[in-house]
Amino acid sequence: MWNTARHCMLLLATLGALSHVVAQSAASNADVVFTMPITLDGNLKDLHLMRGETYENAALSFARENGLSEQANVVEQLSQMLKQRMEEIEGAAKADQRAPLVQFELPLTIDNRNLRLIKLEGESAEATAQRFLQDAGFSAEVQTQLYPQILNVINQKLQELQPAQKELFALSFEIDGRAATARHFENGNPIEEAKETLQAMGIAANDNLVSQIANLIQDRMRASESTQERAESSSGIQTTSGLSQQQDTRRELFSIPLTINEQPAMLVHYDGLTARESAIRFLSANGITDPADVGQYLPQLEPLIDAELAKRIQEEAERERTQAEEMRQQQEVLRAQQATRSPLLEISIDIGNQQAILRYYEGDSIDRTAELFLEQAGLGNDPAFNDNAIQLAGILRDRLKELLAQRQAETPVAEQPQVPTTEPLFTVPIELGRRQFNLDYYEGQQPRQAANQFCVEKYEILRAEVGSQFSGEELQRCESVLTETLTKIISEAQQTEGVQREATQATGQQLGQATHGEQAQPVASTTEERVLLFTLDIDVDEESAQLPYYKNDDPDAVATAFCQRYNVDLANVPALVAAIREQLNPIGG
């Protein structure tokens, strides 16, 4: 009797201390729902509730194992404790199982079945498509067929739900001769926009193309920002505090396309920043500010920036050496020319308290003459260099017009040069400043003379009509490219004429009828037949090479000769032939 009472008192004391009991994780036995620790005679015992077992049976089983089966009140208390704990567990589980929010619903009809596609918040489009097809009960084969279509429907709906983006600008350019347009939207990612541009054209988005297009977009963005800053500066825009708005005036040196957190990003390095500063700015802009994460990324980013910076410094030094050498050679050529030529015009120019003589030689570029004069006078690095060069070039043009008008007035009409009345040997279509011009080449002309005359005249037209300004370097580049083009055309024509002349002479000897005049006739005829239809600009090793096509030429022969001349793989011949035929179709050739 005393032992029984003693056991009851101990159990009641134990039950009073059970307010702090917590549920343990599921036991190794998969049938245990939960376990509660019970202190009995100073020892811990486990009270289990098995799957499918009632609270009363679980309490009775525990009491029987511990010799308390005769104590009905103890069994009842244990049963109530199990029930209360189960209610707590179920309540917590219900709180965790919050109903997912529906993002949108779409009614669909598939095989005459009216279905409803439900997209949940936070669920990927792929997961939604798979769940929809599985819930609809389609076979595995049908699911495979329908999956791309369902996924496309979901993505279209998601795109419609996106807030409308404001287009800031559009860039037009060419990719392998195909017109392309890249659009930049407010808060848009240049890399993603570059990929979308290529995707719209059906071109695989390789890293090289994506990087080039993204850089074009970024260049335009910076140009727009610079224009806006100048406009704000000129209009005196101020912040609400009355202080001038501060802008980051650092100059971008280069950018590196990267992937961070599985998202494309562009690391931009500005002049005046260290590699570490640029890396930290990049990480901060992409939401990485935790010191541990920053410390993990910095050893990877800093060497990238340092390597690119060293490469740019080396390229800049090489470019400066090349420019200095070119400048030295130009000055030597200029001095040699001036030693053997007489200036057409001399103008006295005041520079500070000194005077210098600006000499212009016939056939020279007016703009380049003005630039060289300023450089030789020590004003090459002056901030107003461009303005001064334009002003001097204008003075030169005015004086030249006066001089030419004076000479024309003094020259008898019979001695004045006449416009050629003969037909040109050939005509080359040239595009300058988005305008089309024709370069007529006459017999007896020198290629460089014809090129120089064309470039100077047409640049003057563009300057007068649309106000375009061209540097001496641009004029020299125009003259150099056209001289090379004319030389190639003449060389090819001479080769063709030589072959045909030999054939004509052989035929004349066989017939015994050839005279000197009769032999010259086919040559003249051949020259007249060499009518240039068009010229294709072909990229060869990142340089532009021109492919001229004449009337009656064979596309395959021209394409093959071009590939052989520039050491291009003959596998490119079909593509060149296709490009030639595409140009011939509008002409009717």
Automatic annotation (TrEMBL):
Biased amino acid composition, Low complexity:
503-517
Segment Disordered: which positions? 221-248, 495-522
Show the ranges annotated as biased composition (Polar residues): 233-247
Q: Where is the PFU domain?
A: 500-589
Coiled coil region boundaries:
305-337
The stretch of residues making up the signal peptide is 1-23
Record field: compositional bias (Basic and acidic residues):
221-232
Keyword field: Coiled coil, Signal
- Record's Gene3D superfamilies? PFU (PLAA family ubiquitin binding), C-terminal domain (3.10.20.870)
PANTHER family (alphabetical): EF-HAND DOMAIN-CONTAINING PROTEIN, PFU DOMAIN-CONTAINING PROTEIN
Q: What is this protein called?
A: PFU domain-containing protein
Organism whose genome encodes this protein = Lagenidium giganteum
